[in-house]
Structure to design on (111 residues):
């Protein structure tokens, strides 16, 4: 069984409510979204035309791509509005003492 390893990304106070911020973690471009009172980690890449999602507006759990306006649910990456059709990747996230940590290998196939 593969052990889940969490990587430190940022402090919760670094990301205001309703905002998002991108971080490079072990070569993964990860967007942390502060939605309602929770934090979510998604890949910082729109599945429509591969634009960065950073700076996209948020409406509750919905993240809107700044380029053409596709929207995604930050909880599971599912598409909520076109022109995108494919979901975006999400990452497991936990908060420990105000520290946001994400797991990068959770979807890796076990050896
Ligand atoms: S690149 Fe995001 S909607 Fe087109």
């Amino acid at each position: 069984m593969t052990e889940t390893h969490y990587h430190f990304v940022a402090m919760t106070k670094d990301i205001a409510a309703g905002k998002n911020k991108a971080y490079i973690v072990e070569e993964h471009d990860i967007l942390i979204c502060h939605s309602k009172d929770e934090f979510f980690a998604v890949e910082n890449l729109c599945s429509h035309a591969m634009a960065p999602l950073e700076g996209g507006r948020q409406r509750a759990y919905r993240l809107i791509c700044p380029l053409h306006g596709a929207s995604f649910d930050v909880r599971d990456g599912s598409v909520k509005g076109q022109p995108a059709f494919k979901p975006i990747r999400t990452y497991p996230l936990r908060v420990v003492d105000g520290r946001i940590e994400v797991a990068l290998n959770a979807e890796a196939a076990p050896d």
